[in-house]
Amino acid sequence: MRVKSVRSFGGSEASVAVVGVYAGLRSAPGTDSVLKGIKSWVRTALVATGFDGASGQVAVLALPDGSPVSRVGFVGLGDDLDLDGLRQAAALGRKALDKETRIATTLHRVPLDGAAGAVVEGMGMADYRFDRYKSQRVDRDPLGIDLVGSTDGWETETARSAVVVDAVGLARDLVNEPSRAKSPVMFAERIGTLAVRHGVATETWDIERLTEEGMGGLIGVGMGSHRPPCLFVVHHKPRRPKAKLALVGKGIVFDSGGLSLKSADFMENMKDDMAGAAAVVAATVAIARLGIPVEVVGYAALAENMPGGGAQRPGDVLQIRNGKTIEVLNTDAEGRLVLADALSLAAEGKPDLIVDVATLTGACKVALGPKIAGVFARDDEAANKVLAAARSTGERMWHMPLPSDYRTMIDSAVADMKNTGQGRYGGAITAALLLEEFVGDTPWVHVDIAGPAFLDTAEHYLPKGGTGFGVRALIELAESMKA
Ligand code: BES
Ligand code: ZN
Ligand code: ZN
Question: Among 3.40.50.150, 3.90.550.10, 3.10.590.10, 3.40.220.10, what is the CATH number of 2-149?
Answer without folding.
Answer: 3.40.220.10
